[in-house]
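REQUEST ID: PR-0412
SUBMITTED BY: lab tech R.K.
PRIORITY: routine
TASK: structure prediction, single protein chain
INPUT:
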Amino acid sequence: RELAKSMQVTAERLLPGRVKVDVLTTGDPDPAKRPTRAAILAWLKETAAKATSSDILLLYMSGHGTSKIGDKTGYFYLGSEADPSALSAASIGVTTVSAEDLQAALAAIPAQKQVVILDTCHSGAAAKDLVAERSVSGDYRRAYESLRDAAGVWLLAGSAADQLSYESS
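STATUS: complete
OUTPUT:
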C-alpha cells in the first residue's frame, strides 16, 4: 500500500490527472482485492479494455514465485490462495500465474510502454517469455535515447531464474 501511495504521488507530479493506481493485497478484507490468480488476470483484462497505446503500464508483483512445479519449468507467480509447500502440477493455472499467462495478458494491453517488476524468488525465469531481444550499443547515451523512445516490455526481476529472493526486517 505504501508503494502504491508513493507511486501515485510521484506519477501525479509527472502526469497530473492521468494516473490510476490499483492495489491487490493479501491484507485487504475484500477477497476480490486479494492477489489471487483470478483477480490478477481480471485486473489485466480490465486494463486491456481501458488502456490506450500512449499509456504507460507499471505492473509490480511481490510475493512468492518459483521456476519449477512438478516437471514443468518456467516462471510461476503464486497467487495468495497458493500454498508454497504443497505445489503440484494441479496448481498450474489454478493458483499460479505463469510468465506465459503474463505475456499473453500484456500482449493484449495496448500500452506501448510496459514495465514489469517481479519481486519474487526465481523471477529471472520470466525474462524468456516477457522480454524481446534487444541489441544495445555500448554507448550509454544512445542506449538511453533508444529506450526512452522505444515501445515494449521492460522487466526488473528480484532474482535470477535459479535463485531465491530474500527479505529481512
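NOTES: Residues 58 and 144 are 19 Å apart (CA to CA).
REVIEWED BY: pending
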